[in-house]
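ok trying this again, last paste got cut off
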Amino acid sequence: MTGTQSEKLAKSAQFRTENPPSRTWFTALVLAITTACAPAAPTLKQIAVPAVPEGEAAVRGPSDAPVTIVEFSDFECPYCARVQPILAELDSAYAGKLRFVFKHKPLPNHKNAKLAAFASMAAQNQGRFWEYRELLFKNQRTLGESDLFRFAEQLKLDMEKFKADTNDPLAKARLSADDSLAIKLAITGTPSFLINGRVLTGAQPFDQFRKVIDEELNKAETMLSEGVSPERLSALLTEMNRKQAAATTAAAGKPKSQEKQEDPTALFAVGTHPQHIAVGGSEQDTLVTMVVFTDYQCPFCSRLEPTLTTLREKYGNQLRIVFRNNPLPFHKDAMLAAQAALAANDQGKGWEFHQHLMNNQKTLDRADLDRAAMIIGLDIGLFRLGLNQNRYQDIVKVDMTDAQALGARGTPTAFINGKKVVGSRPTDAFVQVIDAELERAKNRAKAMNLSGRALYDSLVTVP
């Protein structure tokens, strides 16, 4: 933060103590923010998020900091490691103005991430979380059990307590609570940040964080001058931002007659999750990611399938297609079919199951889904257990929430590197967008030395 900004905050605080304020302006702001929607910053995923409970999370920074940054992270995620120097730079630039909260989000494809998370909690129990966290991110390729013990010894931790705490059931409960919170907040990838409740995804550059933080600090200065106590600033700003995002989501449901013509160049920060069905190139190597919101009972979705096959043949590993779910309420079997597809994907046969469902849209009740699982060659016991326990219901619900927030009210709706294409369009309509995105991706990858998830996050947030 600049000296000028610090001086303004100090003067605002002095004004608040010397002059008993009126609440008129603040009340008007709260009312306005719940009924109107200001334009979102280009890298913000504008979804309605509830307040984020800190719980047992590791926290640093003053309790009355006007800006709280909640980080969802994975110790094996290279993009999480890449953003750490940016966070350190922010902490230095805005000394005393930021409060950092760390939440765990180990992804299933990172075999040591969970164990590293448990180890970091054990270090936290001895007051050394942040130092231990730094060691983990600096040594991502050596996170086996012996390595985790070595890092603890390096910090001179009580090793007997450390080993016991690493296996403590409470650590597993904490991890489960963080994961449930991530699902509730529609956080699907890492790193993801909530800056006073405003969602920023990916290893973004310093300036992207600064833009959002400065906006929040400017609002904080005004609130201080209106008599809001410093310790309440971040919580109130988070609530206001939540209402603003909710208003955006609600606005997406306006009748078409009230909608403005959608900008074909608009970008949408569409997330993906390892549990989603994906075909084509890998996340690490692909240049174009096409996320398709689909419904297994939608005839237009099945009509799109031959087009997707043509696109896969044309672009090979340059194109990755990810399927997310948006079962429409008037399709009675679509919700369960979506969960069944995710159950099949857990057994490595999501694509085969997806194709079977699209080819058999009129026979999708529970018995039909069980028969499909046997035809595909799934472990029927595991398949049935997953459905009976509603194991995949939350993922589908997150998909549905995201679809609404992104304005994908019908199916199919595709997002090609964040560019929206609605409906079962002719192949040429998709080719036109994909060709343009291939060029944009190649230029961005070369100019910024990006690849994989970092490249995708950049493409869907920055024009």
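PB: full thing came through this time. Residues 230-251 form the longest helix (22 residues).
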